[in-house]
Specification:
Elements lengths: L1 H12 L11 H4 L35 E12 L15 E9 L4 E8 L4 E11 L9 E11 L11 H4 L1 E11 L4 E12 L10 E12 L4 E9 L14 E8 L3 E8 L6 H6 L11 E11 L3
Antiparallel strand pairs: 1-2, 1-12, 2-3, 3-4, 4-5, 5-6, 6-7, 7-8, 8-9, 9-10, 10-11, 11-12
């Protein structure tokens, strides 16, 4: 809790040398907008690099660093003794995304769940543009590496642990209030629980944002995994919803979800919680951007 509190304070206060409070977050997450009437690029499809768990088409501009804190508390159905999940157990992910060019972002992260490391690349293929380009398209790929020690699995080698994910992210901003997205996804697990399970898992995520005010919106997302791919394991489709607040330099997201994992293979293919049974985790995301350009 002390570590989490310190991280929270750092994110809130930030560094005056790296970032000005007057700088718009949207300017930090996108390139300069072409101002030609009727041909301008569409900006602000989403406020951050994720809708909630799901990757969005937004990414930091060149020389901009995004710091993300993702936290999920215990299940609401834990009861009053566990204060409806607030007493834990909790999961945490810390991540950094950096724009190395106007189109390419690299990211790294560490999750407490299974002591997992992740690395990713997001590439901007197309950007929605008035009258000429109806959608934004991004390509996202990642490697996830859990390092948790299993006493009953001494045979696990490094290559057994690796999980690969590739997503095509397609989104459209319909008007100033409504944005929608779809993300067809392929995942490859080098090791699966049983021989009857598929190593290659297909899924599709859908999400969106509806703005309530200039700086507040309702976000929701749903991930569908066709049945029959993981026969030995009961998994549920991930559904998350929450309130998002944008304050200029930060994005705050207050979330309810049935997934405690916060990287793609975990919330897509390892969600064990059911909304119908009350397996709902309350959590939050906080993201802050820093302009590292001199």
């Amino acid at each position: 809790m002390r570590v989490l509190l310190m991280v929270f304070i750092v994110v809130i206060t930030g560094s005056a040398n790296c970032f000005s409070q007057d700088t718009s977050l949207l300017k930090m997450l996108s390139d300069s907008i072409i101002a030609t009437p009727g041909l301008s690029y569409i900006k602000g499809t989403f406020n951050g690099s994720t809708i909630l768990n799901l990757q969005s088409v937004e990414q930091p501009a060149k020389n901009v660093l995004e710091f993300v804190v993702m936290h999920r508390l215990g299940k609401l159905n834990a009861g009053s003794y566990e204060f409806f999940g607030l007493d834990g157990p909790a999961t945490l992910r810390l991540g950094f995304n950096y724009g190395i060019s106007s189109r390419v972002t690299i990211g790294v992260g560490r999750s407490s769940l299974d002591k997992t490391f992740d690395g990713s690349v997001k590439y901007k293929l197309l950007r929605q543009r008035e009258k000429t380009i109806p959608v934004s398209l991004n390509l996202f790929t990642s490697i996830v590496y859990p390092t948790l020690k299993y006493a009953d699995k001494p045979y696990l080698k490094n290559h057994h642990r690796k999980i690969y994910t590739t997503q095509l992210i397609a989104a459209r901003k319909f008007n100033k209030n409504l944005s929608l997205e779809v993300t067809p996804t392929w995942m490859h697990f080098n090791l699966v629980p049983k021989a009857i399970d598929n190593n290659d898992i297909l899924a599709v995520g859908m999400g969106g944002r509806m703005k309530l005010t200039k700086r507040m919106s309702i976000n929701a997302e749903y991930a569908y995994v066709p049945s029959g791919q993981l026969k030995s394991t009961t998994i549920y489709n991930s559904f998350s919803t929450g309130i998002e607040l944008e304050t200029g330099g930060h994005v705050f997201q207050l979330i309810f979800t049935n997934s405690d994992g916060m990287v793609e293979p975990y919330y897509l293919a390892k969600t064990s919680g059911s909304w119908g049974k009350g397996d709902i985790y309350f959590g939050f995301n906080i993201s802050r951007v820093f302009n590292l350009k001199k």
